[in-house]
Amino acid sequence: MKIYDLIGIGFGPSNIALAITLEEQKQSGYGIESFFIEKQPNFAWHANMLLDNAHMQVSFLKDLATMRNPSSHFTFINYLHQKNRLQDFINLKTFFPSRHEFNDYLTWAASHFDHCCAYGEEVIEVLPEKRGDEVALLRIRSRNREQVVHERLTRNLVISIGGQPRIPESFAPLKGDPRVFHSNNYLKEIKHHPHAKKIAVVGGGQSAAEIFMDLHHRYEKDKAQVDLIMRARAIKPSDDSPFVNEIFNTDFTDYVFNSSDQQRTEILNEFWHTNYAAPDLVLIEQIFNVFYRQKVAGIERHRFLRRHEVKQAVSQNDGIQFVLHDLNTEQDRTATYDAVVLATGYNRDYHKLLLAPIMPYFRDMQVDRQYRLNSVAQFKPSVFLQGACESSHGLSDTLLSVTAVRTHEIAQALINTSNQTTSAQLKRAMPSAFAY
After folding, report:
1. Which of 69, 184, 302, 305 is the most exposed place for a label (fewest CB within 10 A)?
2. What CA–CA distance (Å, rounded) separates 253 from 393?
3. What is the pLDDT of residue 326?
4. Architecture of domain 167-238+275-342
5. Helical H runs in 51-123?
6. Calpha distance 347→168 (Å, rounded)
7. Top-level CATH class of 3-163+348-433?
């Protein structure tokens, strides 16, 4: 069986950026053979949240390559040049392209690596391959849509699988009910509810705000009611001012990693609202305007249920019934909805389930500065995590901000490991070389 130097699980922006980095390293004489496995049938980046008029919240300069290598073929600017749109984009006078355009850029970049990516396969197991007392390789088992299982061997592994939808405990009993779905599947699922009259959006972040506005326009003719439900007292805007934005600089990663556990916690708490539960100010103003126009007209079509939490959600024939707890009055009330959208964020710990068979070889689930899990001496493969190291590397870990530079750091770790392995092999071979 062929042995790869590196297998990547997932082929989203992080692993595309890594594939680009490794490809450009080949030009310097470092030939690391990589292969990627992606469960989606083709490349798609948050396909069910590609809403009309949705824009990026991060500068196009923080693309897959620019921060690492501005002269790369894979920069967003070169993409525009290749598509003959560079001058037109300049005339837009913006740092924030539409989400549709950035998805097209990512698709363009991913297409360069079709030869080393298996789409439509879901990794189901990561197994140790032993040579004596050592784990020398990893066996990656994946299954395609025809239920055919594929096995591949690798010397190193990188996991870049993004987040898994977070479902609040009160909605756990409704798993499988088509009237309740996460924002991750919004566009796919909302089309199944063309005649909904009452819709709940649960959450207070960018996705919740974007979905609220989309529903407002989507059901404009039918005058469907949309309730925006959140525990917070107000929708707070994301702080993208220059000094705050410095926390997303690549050198801030060093600062966070080298801080104590207590200092890291304080940093994360202080800047939490730069990335979570904080929509763009323009979007907040649009929502406020919707509610203001309702007051002018004297018609309450939508409701902003601030300081409310969903205590219970029950499936009934006529809809999903909520027991809503008003945190201001400490009173409960019920409301029934035809559809419920959970804009409740993501969990980023699914890698632990994938790595369960080799978990005993890790001292803990901590990573080093190069995003590599700490392992025991007998475990030779390097296992890297992308997008699951926020607690150790800072809030930028799940964002595009450090993606290009992070892949350079991982590539260097791979090169160093490869050089050390080659050196050790040469030393072992020396006695026999001089046997004569």
Report:
1. 69
2. 5
3. 97
4. 3-Layer(bba) Sandwich (3.50)
5. 76-82, 86-92, 99-111
6. 11
7. alpha beta
